[in-house]
Amino acid sequence: MNKAIVLTGITTTGTPHLGNYVGAIRPAIAASKNANVTPFYFLADYHALIKCQEPEKVRLSSLEIAATWLAFGLDTSNAVFYRQSDVPEIMELTWLLTCVTAKGLMNRAHAYKAAVADNELSNENDPDKGITMGLFSYPILMAADILMFNANKVPVGKDQIQHIEMARDIAGRFNHIYGDHFALPEAVIDDNTATLAGLDGRKMSKSYNNTIPLFEPEKKLKKLINKIKTNSLEPGEPKDPEGCSLFGIYQAFATPSEVAEIRQRYAQGISWGEMKQVLFDYINDHITPARERYEALMQAPQHIEEQLQEGAQKARAISVPFIKRLRESVGISRIAP
Ligand code: TRP
Fold first, then answer.
1. At a CB cut-off of 8 Å and minimum separation 6, what does 73 contact?
2. What is the pLDDT of residue 191?
3. Average pLDDT score over residue span 202-218
4. Cα–Cα distance measured from residue 136 to residue 140, given in angstroms and rounded to the nearest whole number
5. Cβ proximity of 94 and 141 under 8 Å
């Protein structure tokens, strides 16, 4: 039986934080050890350029993200772990797909529409002000990432569902014109993966600047956890765990019986100071072994690079012959052998 291809990309802007870990990294590492699937995980560095024009940031983020995934024990013997830009066939495919994608489809993309809405709100004359073609056609690049490897399942956050649907549309259009080349991908949304609250109580996200980076040194981690916003209930007063950021984060790490115990301590009026200590100890214990590996990896970028090159080789063993076939299907090939 052919193994299912599971594929997901991580945009290389920013430093991985606790929210990324429970939402994406942890489930992906678990899946990398599942022998029934072939996971493709890649650093989406071309996607990074859409949001970030600071070369050093993109470079550092690629390094940090790769080191993070390896530090948590990504099984690179089963998973194909690579950098998008090391597979130039993805860019070639992007153009082939661009030429069958209706502009109207892109007009409907959420990210583009949100940028236009922002301009309209600020009474801009030009609704497209500040919007690059990169942002506008971003769903096509993402479709190429997915279709290049005929991925069946694409684990993503809810905000990305529309992009997977667009990839299906684009694949269908290409298949209709040029023959059956692409599998139609499906989004996989895991409702069980937690979304963590950040320092200010809103969803933990780079864009809110409220994150707790994964591999802060202990002292810094402690400081950040102490900063998480709580209400003003006094020690001894019963507290409601539902909707409490500290509890939500604890729940994403601890076992069900540990969570039940903390729930009781909330009812008994645990102080916020104590709860913060409990949370810090738990997360710190959980993360310390990976943090040590991470620090070692950051000192050995050569090792990380080797892993990525190996991944790129595995990926290109597929993409090189596939793009050749796709080019031929659209009428681009040598005139004589
Ligand atoms: N756009 C995705 C995000 O911001 C990252 C990404 C790029 C991706 N290419 C992909 C995810 C292909 C899944 C499949 O989260």
1. 29, 290
2. 76
3. 94
4. 9
5. yes
CA–CA separation, 288 and 293 (whole Å): 9
Architecture of domain 215-296: Orthogonal Bundle (1.10)
Instruction: Indicate the Cα dihedral angle 70, 76, 79, 84, nearest 10°.
Output: 70
pLDDT tens for 218-239 read 999 999 999 999 999 999 999 9
How many angstroms separate the CA atoms of 47 and 61, rounded? 12
Ligand 1 centre distance from Cα of residue 155 (Å): 9
Structure confidence at residue 194 (pLDDT): 76
Residue 1's pLDDT band (cuts 50, 70, 90): low
**In whole angstroms, what is the distance from residue 144 CA to residue 164 CA?**
11
Q: Which residues pair with 153 in a beta bridge?
A: 6, 186
Q: Where in the chain is the domain with CATH 3.40.50.620?
A: 4-194+301-330
Given a cut of 80, whether residue 192 has pLDDT beyond it is: no
Q: Where in the chain is the domain with CATH 1.10.240.10?
A: 215-296
Q: 13-57 pLDDT, tens per residue?
A: 999 999 999 989 999 999 899 999 999 999 999 999 999 999 999
- Please work out whether the CB of residue 32 comes within 6 Å of at least one atom of ligand 1: no
Q: Which CATH number fits domain 4-194+301-330: 3.30.465.10, 3.90.550.10, 3.60.15.10, 3.40.50.620?
A: 3.40.50.620
**Nearest Cα residue to atom 4 of ligand 1:** 11
Q: Tell me the mean pLDDT in the region 127-131.
A: 96
Give distance in angstroms: CA of 298 to centre of ligand 1: 24
Ligand 1: does its nearest atom lie under 6 Å from the Cβ of 65?
A: no
Q: Is 11 in the pocket of ligand 1 (CB under 6 A)?
A: yes
Instruction: Single out the residue of 232, 267, 226 nearest to residue 246, CA to CA.
Output: 226
- Per the rule left: phi > 0, alpha: psi between -120 and 50, beta: everything else, 130 is left
> What is the C-alpha separation between 239 and 251, in angstroms, rounded?
16
